[in-house]
UniProtKB/TrEMBL annotation:
The twin CX3C motif contains 4 conserved Cys residues that form 2 disulfide bonds in the mitochondrial intermembrane space. Mitochondrial intermembrane chaperone that participates in the import and insertion of some multi-pass transmembrane proteins into the mitochondrial inner membrane. Also required for the transfer of beta-barrel precursors from the TOM complex to the sorting and assembly machinery (SAM complex) of the outer membrane. Acts as a chaperone-like protein that protects the hydrophobic precursors from aggregation and guide them through the mitochondrial intermembrane space. Residues 9-47 form the Tim10-like domain. GO terms for molecular function: metal ion binding; protein transporter activity. Heterohexamer. The keyword Disulfide bond applies. The keyword Lipid biosynthesis does not apply. It is found in: Mitochondrion inner membrane. GO terms for biological process: protein insertion into mitochondrial inner membrane; protein transport. This is Mitochondrial import inner membrane translocase subunit.
Length: 60
């Protein structure tokens, strides 16, 4: 039988996830809008964005 995670622990984990997600999206947003009119995604940035997506468990 699988161990149950308490409701308090689930809430804490979700709050931590949301905090990380908010920091990540803010960082990505600020990186993109900094030079938006002339924006071109460079290979190094593409790799970095892929790595950040993996942290959130998103497919590349």
């Amino acid at each position: 039988m699988a161990a149950q995670i308490s409701e308090t622990d689930q809430i804490n984990q979700f709050q931590e996830f949301l905090g990380i997600y908010n920091k990540l999206t803010e960082t990505c947003f600020l990186d993109c809008v900094q030079d938006f009119p002339t924006r071109e995604v460079k290979p190094k940035e593409s790799t970095s964005l892929s790595a950040k997506a993996e942290v959130l468990g998103q497919p590349r």
